Amino acid sequence: MSFEYTEITDPLYVQSREQNREEDYIMVRRKECKDVPISIPNWKPSAHCFTTRFHQYEKDLLEAEVYSDDVWVASYPKSGTTWCQEMVWLICNNLNFNEARAESLRTRFPFLEVSLIHDTQISSFERVQKTKRPRFIKTHLPVSMLPKSYWSVKPKTVYIRRNPKSVAVSYYHHSRGIFYRGSMESFVRSFMRDHQFYSPYHAHVIEYHALTGCDNVLHLSYEEMKRDLPSVVSKVCQFFGKSYTEPELQRLYEHLSFASMKENKACNYEDHNAPSKDHGCFIRKGELDSWREELTPDLIDLLDRWTVKSAPTDAERKLFE
Asked: For residue 71, which of 139, 146, 148, 141 has the smallest C-alpha distance?
Protein backbone atom coordinates (compact mmCIF):
# COMPACT_ATOMS: atom_id res chain seq x y z
CA MET A 1 0.00 0.00 0.00
CA SER A 2 1.11 3.54 -0.74
CA PHE A 3 -0.43 4.86 2.47
CA GLU A 4 -0.27 3.88 6.10
CA TYR A 5 -3.34 4.09 8.30
CA THR A 6 -3.35 4.81 12.02
CA GLU A 7 -6.31 4.73 14.35
CA ILE A 8 -6.82 7.78 16.54
CA THR A 9 -6.29 6.74 20.15
CA ASP A 10 -6.35 10.22 21.70
CA PRO A 11 -8.59 9.83 24.79
CA LEU A 12 -10.47 13.07 24.02
CA TYR A 13 -11.34 11.81 20.54
CA VAL A 14 -12.27 8.30 21.73
CA GLN A 15 -14.48 9.70 24.48
CA SER A 16 -16.48 12.05 22.23
CA ARG A 17 -16.41 10.49 18.74
CA GLU A 18 -19.87 8.93 18.86
CA GLN A 19 -21.52 11.96 20.41
CA ASN A 20 -19.83 14.26 17.86
CA ARG A 21 -20.53 11.85 14.96
CA GLU A 22 -16.85 11.35 14.17
CA GLU A 23 -16.78 7.56 14.50
CA ASP A 24 -14.94 6.77 11.25
CA TYR A 25 -12.01 9.18 11.44
CA ILE A 26 -8.52 7.83 10.73
CA MET A 27 -5.05 9.29 10.20
CA VAL A 28 -3.52 8.62 6.77
CA ARG A 29 0.09 9.17 5.70
CA ARG A 30 1.67 8.83 2.26
CA LYS A 31 4.70 6.57 2.57
CA GLU A 32 6.82 7.86 -0.31
CA CYS A 33 6.90 11.46 -1.56
CA LYS A 34 10.10 11.66 -3.59
CA ASP A 35 8.19 13.42 -6.37
CA VAL A 36 7.25 16.41 -4.17
CA PRO A 37 9.74 19.30 -4.74
CA ILE A 38 9.87 20.78 -1.24
CA SER A 39 12.54 22.87 0.49
CA ILE A 40 11.96 21.64 4.06
CA PRO A 41 15.13 19.77 5.17
CA ASN A 42 14.60 16.06 5.87
CA TRP A 43 10.90 16.52 5.21
CA LYS A 44 8.61 13.60 5.89
CA PRO A 45 4.89 13.89 5.10
CA SER A 46 2.51 14.24 8.01
CA ALA A 47 -0.41 11.94 8.68
CA HIS A 48 -3.66 13.74 7.81
CA CYS A 49 -7.16 13.20 9.10
CA PHE A 50 -9.63 11.50 6.75
CA THR A 51 -12.23 8.74 7.11
CA THR A 52 -12.04 4.99 6.59
CA ARG A 53 -13.41 5.63 3.06
CA PHE A 54 -9.84 6.49 2.07
CA HIS A 55 -8.96 2.77 1.72
CA GLN A 56 -11.47 2.41 -1.09
CA TYR A 57 -10.12 5.26 -3.19
CA GLU A 58 -6.37 5.39 -2.63
CA LYS A 59 -5.57 4.08 -6.15
CA ASP A 60 -8.11 6.46 -7.72
CA LEU A 61 -6.39 9.32 -5.92
CA LEU A 62 -2.81 8.48 -6.84
CA GLU A 63 -3.59 7.52 -10.45
CA ALA A 64 -5.98 10.41 -11.17
CA GLU A 65 -5.14 11.87 -14.57
CA VAL A 66 -3.93 15.46 -14.62
CA TYR A 67 -3.96 17.60 -17.78
CA SER A 68 -1.84 20.62 -18.67
CA ASP A 69 -4.96 22.74 -19.28
CA ASP A 70 -6.45 21.93 -15.85
CA VAL A 71 -6.97 24.79 -13.42
CA TRP A 72 -6.78 23.86 -9.73
CA VAL A 73 -7.75 25.75 -6.59
CA ALA A 74 -6.22 24.25 -3.46
CA SER A 75 -6.63 25.11 0.21
CA TYR A 76 -7.18 23.86 3.71
CA PRO A 77 -10.99 23.81 4.24
CA LYS A 78 -12.80 27.08 5.03
CA SER A 79 -9.96 29.30 3.83
CA GLY A 80 -11.97 31.30 1.30
CA THR A 81 -12.00 28.47 -1.24
CA THR A 82 -15.44 29.14 -2.74
CA TRP A 83 -14.74 32.86 -3.14
CA CYS A 84 -11.41 32.09 -4.80
CA GLN A 85 -12.96 29.48 -7.10
CA GLU A 86 -15.59 31.90 -8.37
CA MET A 87 -12.94 34.56 -9.01
CA VAL A 88 -10.65 32.14 -10.84
CA TRP A 89 -13.46 30.61 -12.91
CA LEU A 90 -14.72 34.00 -14.09
CA ILE A 91 -11.27 35.34 -14.92
CA CYS A 92 -10.47 32.21 -16.92
CA ASN A 93 -13.86 32.19 -18.67
CA ASN A 94 -13.98 35.73 -20.05
CA LEU A 95 -16.19 37.00 -17.20
CA ASN A 96 -19.14 34.86 -18.27
CA PHE A 97 -21.46 36.03 -15.48
CA ASN A 98 -24.54 34.48 -17.06
CA GLU A 99 -23.09 30.97 -16.98
CA ALA A 100 -21.61 31.55 -13.54
CA ARG A 101 -25.07 32.31 -12.15
CA ALA A 102 -26.87 29.64 -14.15
CA GLU A 103 -24.69 26.67 -13.22
CA SER A 104 -23.61 25.62 -9.73
CA LEU A 105 -19.98 26.12 -8.81
CA ARG A 106 -20.02 22.47 -7.73
CA THR A 107 -20.61 21.55 -11.37
CA ARG A 108 -18.26 24.10 -12.87
CA PHE A 109 -15.52 23.38 -10.33
CA PRO A 110 -15.89 19.80 -8.97
CA PHE A 111 -14.31 18.72 -5.68
CA LEU A 112 -11.73 16.06 -6.60
CA GLU A 113 -11.52 13.94 -3.45
CA VAL A 114 -14.78 14.51 -1.59
CA SER A 115 -15.42 10.74 -1.77
CA LEU A 116 -12.56 10.29 0.72
CA ILE A 117 -14.58 11.94 3.50
CA HIS A 118 -18.28 11.74 2.57
CA ASP A 119 -20.50 9.21 0.79
CA THR A 120 -21.25 10.27 -2.78
CA GLN A 121 -23.63 8.84 -5.40
CA ILE A 122 -20.74 8.35 -7.80
CA SER A 123 -17.02 8.51 -7.15
CA SER A 124 -15.82 12.12 -7.13
CA PHE A 125 -12.70 10.94 -8.97
CA GLU A 126 -14.88 9.48 -11.72
CA ARG A 127 -16.90 12.68 -11.89
CA VAL A 128 -13.77 14.82 -12.28
CA GLN A 129 -12.38 12.46 -14.89
CA LYS A 130 -15.56 12.87 -16.97
CA THR A 131 -15.63 16.66 -16.65
CA LYS A 132 -15.29 18.53 -19.93
CA ARG A 133 -11.90 20.10 -20.55
CA PRO A 134 -10.49 22.51 -19.66
CA ARG A 135 -11.34 21.27 -16.17
CA PHE A 136 -11.55 23.41 -13.05
CA ILE A 137 -10.73 21.32 -9.99
CA LYS A 138 -11.09 22.04 -6.28
CA THR A 139 -8.96 20.16 -3.76
CA HIS A 140 -8.11 20.29 -0.07
CA LEU A 141 -5.38 17.67 -0.44
CA PRO A 142 -2.00 18.35 1.21
CA VAL A 143 1.02 18.35 -1.10
CA SER A 144 1.94 14.80 -0.09
CA MET A 145 -1.36 13.41 -1.40
CA LEU A 146 -1.74 15.12 -4.76
CA PRO A 147 -2.00 12.67 -7.70
CA LYS A 148 1.34 11.35 -8.96
CA SER A 149 1.04 13.04 -12.35
CA TYR A 150 0.41 16.44 -10.78
CA TRP A 151 4.15 16.93 -10.31
CA SER A 152 5.12 16.19 -13.91
CA VAL A 153 2.21 18.05 -15.52
CA LYS A 154 2.16 21.03 -13.10
CA PRO A 155 -1.26 22.51 -13.92
CA LYS A 156 -1.97 26.13 -13.03
CA THR A 157 -2.91 26.14 -9.35
CA VAL A 158 -4.09 28.85 -6.97
CA TYR A 159 -3.54 28.13 -3.28
CA ILE A 160 -5.46 30.24 -0.76
CA ARG A 161 -4.79 30.40 2.99
CA ARG A 162 -6.57 32.05 5.95
CA ASN A 163 -5.90 33.02 9.56
CA PRO A 164 -6.23 29.92 11.79
CA LYS A 165 -8.69 31.54 14.21
CA SER A 166 -11.02 32.42 11.33
CA VAL A 167 -10.61 28.92 9.90
CA ALA A 168 -11.44 27.32 13.25
CA VAL A 169 -14.70 29.25 13.65
CA SER A 170 -15.80 28.88 10.03
CA TYR A 171 -14.92 25.17 9.98
CA TYR A 172 -16.97 24.58 13.14
CA HIS A 173 -20.09 26.21 11.66
CA HIS A 174 -19.61 24.38 8.36
CA SER A 175 -19.21 21.00 10.09
CA ARG A 176 -22.09 21.71 12.45
CA GLY A 177 -24.31 22.36 9.45
CA ILE A 178 -23.50 18.96 7.93
CA PHE A 179 -22.90 16.38 10.66
CA TYR A 180 -20.97 17.59 13.70
CA ARG A 181 -22.85 17.64 17.02
CA GLY A 182 -20.24 18.84 19.51
CA SER A 183 -19.65 22.30 20.97
CA MET A 184 -17.43 24.96 19.42
CA GLU A 185 -14.89 24.52 22.21
CA SER A 186 -14.77 20.77 21.59
CA PHE A 187 -14.32 21.35 17.85
CA VAL A 188 -11.56 23.93 18.26
CA ARG A 189 -9.64 21.75 20.67
CA SER A 190 -9.99 18.84 18.25
CA PHE A 191 -8.82 21.11 15.40
CA MET A 192 -5.69 21.94 17.41
CA ARG A 193 -5.06 18.22 18.01
CA ASP A 194 -5.21 17.59 14.21
CA HIS A 195 -8.41 15.56 14.40
CA GLN A 196 -10.48 17.39 11.78
CA PHE A 197 -10.50 16.57 8.07
CA TYR A 198 -7.24 17.47 6.26
CA SER A 199 -5.46 18.45 9.48
CA PRO A 200 -2.75 19.19 10.49
CA TYR A 201 -3.64 22.71 9.41
CA HIS A 202 -0.25 24.43 9.78
CA ALA A 203 1.62 21.70 7.90
CA HIS A 204 -0.91 21.99 5.05
CA VAL A 205 -0.21 25.70 4.60
CA ILE A 206 3.53 25.63 5.24
CA GLU A 207 4.19 22.76 2.83
CA TYR A 208 2.41 24.43 -0.10
CA HIS A 209 4.53 27.54 0.51
CA ALA A 210 7.72 25.47 0.72
CA LEU A 211 7.38 24.00 -2.78
CA THR A 212 10.33 24.77 -5.03
CA GLY A 213 10.41 25.26 -8.80
CA CYS A 214 6.61 25.44 -8.91
CA ASP A 215 5.88 28.59 -10.85
CA ASN A 216 2.54 26.96 -11.66
CA VAL A 217 1.34 27.79 -8.12
CA LEU A 218 0.02 31.24 -7.16
CA HIS A 219 -0.33 31.95 -3.43
CA LEU A 220 -3.16 34.14 -2.12
CA SER A 221 -4.76 34.81 1.25
CA TYR A 222 -8.35 35.41 2.28
CA GLU A 223 -7.25 38.50 4.21
CA GLU A 224 -5.57 39.92 1.11
CA MET A 225 -8.77 39.40 -0.89
CA LYS A 226 -10.82 41.17 1.79
CA ARG A 227 -8.47 44.14 2.12
CA ASP A 228 -7.60 44.74 -1.54
CA LEU A 229 -9.64 42.65 -3.98
CA PRO A 230 -8.55 44.65 -7.09
CA SER A 231 -4.89 43.89 -6.33
CA VAL A 232 -5.64 40.17 -5.99
CA VAL A 233 -7.69 40.14 -9.19
CA SER A 234 -4.78 41.81 -10.97
CA LYS A 235 -2.41 39.06 -9.77
CA VAL A 236 -4.78 36.34 -10.89
CA CYS A 237 -5.33 37.96 -14.31
CA GLN A 238 -1.57 38.18 -14.81
CA PHE A 239 -1.10 34.57 -13.67
CA PHE A 240 -3.59 33.32 -16.28
CA GLY A 241 -2.62 35.80 -19.01
CA LYS A 242 -5.97 37.59 -18.98
CA SER A 243 -6.78 41.28 -19.41
CA TYR A 244 -10.07 43.14 -18.87
CA THR A 245 -11.27 46.74 -19.12
CA GLU A 246 -11.96 48.80 -16.01
CA PRO A 247 -15.76 48.62 -16.45
CA GLU A 248 -15.50 44.84 -16.80
CA LEU A 249 -13.37 44.63 -13.65
CA GLN A 250 -15.81 46.79 -11.71
CA ARG A 251 -18.55 44.35 -12.58
CA LEU A 252 -16.34 41.50 -11.40
CA TYR A 253 -15.67 43.23 -8.06
CA GLU A 254 -19.40 43.69 -7.57
CA HIS A 255 -20.09 40.04 -8.42
CA LEU A 256 -17.44 38.96 -5.90
CA SER A 257 -18.68 41.24 -3.13
CA PHE A 258 -19.88 39.48 0.03
CA ALA A 259 -23.47 40.68 -0.43
CA SER A 260 -23.55 39.36 -3.99
CA MET A 261 -21.89 36.03 -3.14
CA LYS A 262 -24.25 35.42 -0.21
CA GLU A 263 -27.26 35.83 -2.50
CA ASN A 264 -25.73 33.83 -5.35
CA LYS A 265 -27.30 30.36 -5.17
CA ALA A 266 -24.79 29.01 -7.67
CA CYS A 267 -22.08 29.55 -5.03
CA ASN A 268 -23.86 29.72 -1.68
CA TYR A 269 -24.82 26.08 -1.34
CA GLU A 270 -27.53 25.38 1.17
CA ASP A 271 -28.01 22.35 3.39
CA HIS A 272 -31.73 22.06 3.98
CA ASN A 273 -31.14 19.57 6.80
CA ALA A 274 -29.05 22.06 8.76
CA PRO A 275 -30.33 22.99 12.21
CA SER A 276 -30.55 26.73 11.59
CA LYS A 277 -30.58 29.31 8.85
CA ASP A 278 -27.03 30.44 9.64
CA HIS A 279 -25.72 26.88 9.60
CA GLY A 280 -27.51 26.20 6.34
CA CYS A 281 -25.71 28.95 4.43
CA PHE A 282 -22.38 27.92 2.95
CA ILE A 283 -21.24 31.56 2.89
CA ARG A 284 -21.87 32.81 6.41
CA LYS A 285 -20.32 36.12 7.55
CA GLY A 286 -17.35 36.94 5.34
CA GLU A 287 -15.67 39.11 7.98
CA LEU A 288 -11.97 39.26 8.81
CA ASP A 289 -12.06 39.13 12.60
CA SER A 290 -15.48 37.74 13.51
CA TRP A 291 -13.65 35.10 15.56
CA ARG A 292 -13.24 37.77 18.24
CA GLU A 293 -17.01 37.60 18.81
CA GLU A 294 -17.20 33.80 19.02
CA LEU A 295 -14.02 32.50 20.62
CA THR A 296 -13.36 32.76 24.33
CA PRO A 297 -10.14 34.50 25.46
CA ASP A 298 -8.79 31.11 26.56
CA LEU A 299 -9.36 29.57 23.12
CA ILE A 300 -7.81 32.59 21.38
CA ASP A 301 -4.74 32.25 23.57
CA LEU A 302 -4.53 28.51 22.92
CA LEU A 303 -4.83 29.01 19.15
CA ASP A 304 -2.11 31.68 19.17
CA ARG A 305 0.28 29.54 21.19
CA TRP A 306 -0.49 26.58 18.94
CA THR A 307 0.54 28.63 15.89
CA VAL A 308 3.78 29.77 17.54
CA LYS A 309 4.63 26.15 18.30
CA SER A 310 3.61 24.82 14.86
CA ALA A 311 5.28 27.61 12.85
CA PRO A 312 8.66 28.12 14.54
CA THR A 313 10.20 30.60 12.06
CA ASP A 314 9.20 34.22 11.49
CA ALA A 315 8.58 33.56 7.80
CA GLU A 316 6.22 30.71 8.63
CA ARG A 317 4.33 32.72 11.26
CA LYS A 318 3.67 35.50 8.75
CA LEU A 319 1.62 33.01 6.75
CA PHE A 320 -0.89 32.89 9.61
CA GLU A 321 -1.37 36.59 10.33
From this structure: 139
Angle, helix 11-20 to helix 184-192, in steps of 10 degrees: 140
| pTM to 2 decimal places | 0.93
Q: Which residues are catalytic?
A: 140
Domains defined for the chain, CATH in brackets: 3-269+277-316 (3.40.50.300)
Q: Quote the CA–CA distance of 208 and 143 in Å, as a whole number.
A: 6
Cα–Cα distance measured from residue 276 to residue 130, given in angstroms and rounded to the nearest whole number: 35
Digits of tens for pLDDT over the chain (321 positions)?
Answer: 799 999 999 999 999 999 999 999 999 999 999 999 999 999 999 999 999 999 999 999 999 999 999 999 999 999 999 999 999 999 999 999 999 999 999 999 999 999 999 999 999 999 999 999 999 999 999 999 999 999 999 999 999 999 999 999 999 999 999 999 999 999 999 999 999 999 999 999 999 999 999 999 999 999 999 999 999 999 999 999 999 999 999 999 999 998 888 887 777 654 433 334 344 444 556 667 889 999 999 999 999 999 999 999 999 999 998
Number of H helices, E strands in the chain: 18, 7
